[in-house]
Amino acid sequence: MRGYGKIILFGEHSVVYGYPALATSLDVGVLCKIEPHNKYQLNVPCLSLVMNDNDSEHVLGKVFNKILSYFPQKKQACRIDLFPEIPLGAGLGSSAATSVSIIRGLLKHHNLVWDNNQVNDVAFAAETIFHGTPSGIDNTIATFGGMCYLRNAQEFPAPRQSIGEIPLKKLTISQLPVLSKPLQLMIVNTKRERRTKDLVDKVREFRNKNQVECDKTMQKMGSFAAIALDAFEREDFSTIGHLFDENQCCLQKIGVSCSEIDFVCDEARRHGALGAKLTGAGGGGCVIVLVEKQQPQLQEILEQRGFEVFYALCGKDCTRGK
Known about the structure:
This protein is an alpha+beta fold. It has two domains: 2-144, Ribosomal Protein S5, domain 2, CATH 3.30.230; 183-321, Alpha-Beta Plaits. It contains nine helices and twelve strands. Strands 1, 2, 3, 4, 5, 6, 7 and 8 form an eight-stranded mixed β-sheet that branches. Helix 1 (59-68) runs parallel beside helix 2, helix 2 (94-109) packs across helix 3 and helix 5 (196-209) crosses helix 6. The termini are close together. The model has no long low-confidence stretch (mean pLDDT 92).
């Protein structure tokens, strides 16, 4: 059982100012293996973590207890082993993927059937323990999978490609059709730590000093999501790559890139990538590189700099393999 990671393709930061964004699940995330046990236990081997159902010291233990509280008719206990396939704490939705993975594992173990809305509600409750006041985006993408258009429903209509609407607290998610040809990405974790709140505050300060310039940049970034939707329909990946580069230039302009991100983007373009940009808050974290095939030479250069590199597909129907 698996909960899927997510990336922001277009519109990070501009979505905070009311413009649309485009996000998607990855075909990798957090894998869950489950087997009967004499008590409820959660293990994360890569972190050397072992927690029981009464563990409340570690945040993951609190999350585990919260999720178990939604399974009152517990019969046979079980042990859950979690295997992250994406970097943790790097802006790829690993906490939501973890929660969804645990939930789906428990459902399978207890032979229960929930619809995606039920899974999503419990995953959101778990996200409040991880993050306090989550937006609901990560858990929704981890649950439903696929690509989605994020918008302020009061300002922007649903795109014509929408196949379903999911209202969140501040935004509405328009679910989009599966891509006939999934997008192949090289994802590079710079391993530079950052706090999302610090980057959001930095952009706000930039806007306070340069409102006209900043608002023009935000508006430009906000247009990329809709342009990309049409390009995806045409399978026009060269346009998608160009939009990656344009979006990255805008993110540099508002001050959320960094030397590590710039290095990855420059090397990616030098090695023939279709485009490259940061994903998420910036200031570190991950870079997404649009490639037509795996790039071993580029991967070697980036890994020699200490970066973590892996590949993922997006825009496919991940949930069929959940």
